[in-house]
Amino acid sequence: MWGFRYKAENCGLELEEGGDIMQYSFAERTKAMLSSPLHFMRSLSTRDSFISFAEELPAEELFPVSSLEAAAAAVISKSPAALQYGEPQGYLPLRKWLCANFKQMKQTDVDAAQILLTTGSQQAVDLLARVYVEPGDPVLVEHPTSPGFLQILKMQGAVIVPVEGNEDGISPEHLLQQLESLRPKLLLVSQTSRILQECCGVLSGARKYWRFANHASF
User: Fold this and answer.
1) How buried is residue 51: exposed, middle or buried, by Cβ count under 10 Å (0-12/13-18/19+)?
2) Measuring CA to CA, which of 9, 19, 24, 45 is 20 to 30 A from 170?
3) Which residues contact 155 (CB under 8 A, 6 or more apart)?
4) Distance from CA of residue 24 to its chain's centroid?
């Protein structure tokens, strides 16, 4: 009978069988993984009387279950290849569709080989952090922001710097000050997380941050 026993003092794990103990030592950066508010919020969301807006969990009774079942059956019956891993960059027909969409909506030429599909925003942020962030690099974040994003940045050793803001989003003045003084590696903004903000406000805000980034050679 094997069992695991965590040792917080040296960030290690003991694997034991009977009286024998085998010790494993993890990398120092795994200390950032020890506690996640997402686990706590997920445990609360199982209560019938608790409604969580933190993770944007939709009401399960609104899921189009029958439509999803029909779609899955249609895809699987068409070809058993749908059960394979597929291409590492993501479903090719979808990437081609995105290329056409970029061309039509944004007048931007993009090749399907330049597109990488992810399973969500957190995977995308994780990949970007691995590519761009070195230990000690300053990264600006909207405050508050996703706990999952913060955990990713901590794992990469980033120096997380919150940018002041209000109900309208990040403060342009404080953002420009931080850009010029810190020369951050990344700026993490989740404007679409503000559910009540109008679409035009999101777009104008994105253009505003882009102008600041150009001004500060960010």
Assistant:
1) exposed
2) 45
3) 29, 30, 32, 33, 129
4) 29
Site of tokens 């103990």? 21
CA 41 to chain centre: 17
By three-state DSSP, how is residue 195 classified?
Answer: coil
Phi-psi region of 43 (alpha: psi -120 to 50; beta: other; left: phi over 0): alpha
173/170 Cα distance (integer angstroms): 9
Q: What is the pLDDT of residues 147-194, one digit of tens each?
A: 888 989 998 999 999 998 877 778 888 888 898 899 999 988 865 544
State pTM to two decimals. Answer: 0.68
Tokens of 173: 């003045």
Q: Is the dihedral of CA 195, 197, 199, 202 positive or negative?
A: negative
The pair of structure tokens assigned to 149 is 């994003």
Residue 88: is the preceding peptide bond cis (ω within 30°)? Answer: no
Give CA–CA dist 51/184, Å, rounded: 36
pLDDT at position 194 is 46
